Amino acid sequence: MRESIGKSAAKSKLAVLLWPIFAFLLLAGYPASAKAQTPFEGMDRNSDGQLSRSEFRGPQRAFKRLDRNKDGYISRHEASGTRLSGDARRPKQSEKKAPPTASSELIYVDTHNHLVGPRKMGELHLEKSARIALVAMDATGVRINLLMPMPQTVNQKHKLYFEDLLPIIERYPGRFAALGGGGSLNVMIQQVIREGHVTERMEKEFDDRASELVRKGAVGFGEMTAEHFSMTEKHPYEAAPPDHPLFLRLADLAARYNLPIDLHMEAIPEEMPMPPRFKSPPNPRTLTPNMEAFSRLLSHNREAKIIWVHLGWDNTGKRTIALTRKLLAENPNLYVSIRIASGMRQRKVVNPTFPLAEDGRLKPEWLALFQEFPDRFLLGSDEIIKPADDHPSAGSIRSTVSLLDQFPPKLKARIGYENAYGLYKLKK
Ligand SMILES: [Zn+2]
Fold first, then answer.
1. Mean pLDDT of 93-122
2. pTM of the entire structure?
3. Which residues have CB atoms below 5 A from the ion given as ligand 1?
């Protein structure tokens, strides 16, 4: 009896010792196209952002150790900092060689990114994340990076406000600017939806905050959201009708101050079930259509410029070329920012609504759309830059900006920077 226990202990000890080698072999065995994958992504066959016991290809003992909350899944959060997230293998952003897009000239404008960092004594420390961003910007020719707080909701634990970004903007003049509202205006909309009605007091608070953001130098209102799926526990589900009275009010404020609105919204042309790769709850089982309400927001005030963000990061499969073309044709005040997230192809989002084919080439039908509306598209990488540089979106500035290499020169200039300079009235 004792002997057999000893044997099985020795066996599992061996398995744990061999685990790094196993993880390495697993990686090395991947085809060249999937090289950027982390072991986590390689094992996550259904791409739901977590590993079940059957997906996990290491020893059971390692599974038990990694599944810290014992819910039967290894989440991305639990995997971060371990070999699963590629931390032992993947070079840090700052160590990566510049891709062929490297430009000696800094000309481009990336209109959508997030910096995060630890909060100590009430102050958010974003310096390290900012330096990581600058390395990627210098390597890809991005001169100006527009930062913004994520679209946050009521009672969210880790809040980030426009004001938190100001020290970084001051420290690196001409390299960063910021949008505001994700930590305030968006939260107010969520608050009002919970309360069921808009009070005069709330309208005033909303107007006051908008004017405060303008006074403090915000270049736009964002990140706002009308439909935001929850991907992890920390990432809330948020929805608001795009024609909610406060969204219409925001359009009027945007027009008054001549600042664009940066809007995150999954496309739901008709009622549909939540795609099964997202957990319900917190996500709803059925999704409410939002495209008609979006058209009402766009037509409410034509002086309000609205950027529908994350083209290329379509989670309903409904953000088609036809839908985008129709909206752009009908709404001269609509703009669209493109996100080609790092690891996107590996995350199996290759589908008709993703602009790149499996070999990484831009699909001609998407290029045709960009050429049809050359002054309506922008870059918006949506990279969440952490001090450890290990967020799943790491590398997205590089992958998004490298899309420009597939554009003819005039279109490259328009989408790469000219449209953004005009829309955001940035200093040349
Ligand atoms: Zn977003």
1. 75
2. 0.76
3. 264
